[in-house]
Amino acid sequence: MFTSISGNVAIVTGAASGAGLGVAKVYAKNGISVVITGRTESRLLSAKKEIEEQTLSCCCR
After folding, report:
1. 17-56, pLDDT tens digit by residue?
2. By its UniProt entry, which InterPro entries does this protein fall under (predicted)?
3. C-alpha to C-alpha distance for 59 and 51, rounded to whole angstroms
4. Residues 2-17 pLDDT 10s
5. What is the residue extent of each domain of the chain?
């Protein structure tokens, strides 16, 4: 049985680049709202923009 993951929320740490960013993108593409965190604000805002280009929303902290 397949359970839909759409509509859930995920907090992704280290999402400014690399694997964290990749995970956040996959989650967002599958309808999961993502909250991303990272150490470098400029890179985090860039990652947020990338995610938002593919989906409707993303929150970074």
Report:
1. 999 999 999 999 888 989 999 999 999 999 999 998 887 6
2. NAD(P)-bd_dom_sf (IPR036291), SDR_fam (IPR002347)
3. 10
4. 577 777 899 999 999 9
5. 9-60
CB 4 within 8 A of CB 28: no
Sheet containing strand 59-60, edge to edge, reads 9-12, 33-36, 59-60
Q: How many CB atoms lie within 10 A of CB 53?
A: 9
Residue 10 exposed, middle or buried by CB count within 10 Å (0-12, 13-18, 19+) = middle
Query: Inter-axis angle of helices 18-29 and 41-54, to 10 degrees?
Result: 30
Q: Which DSSP helix (H) or strand (E) runs through 22?
A: helix 18-29
Is the dihedral angle over the CA atoms 18, 42, 38, 12 positive or is it negative? negative
- What residues does 33 pair with on adjacent strands? 9
pTM of this prediction? 0.82
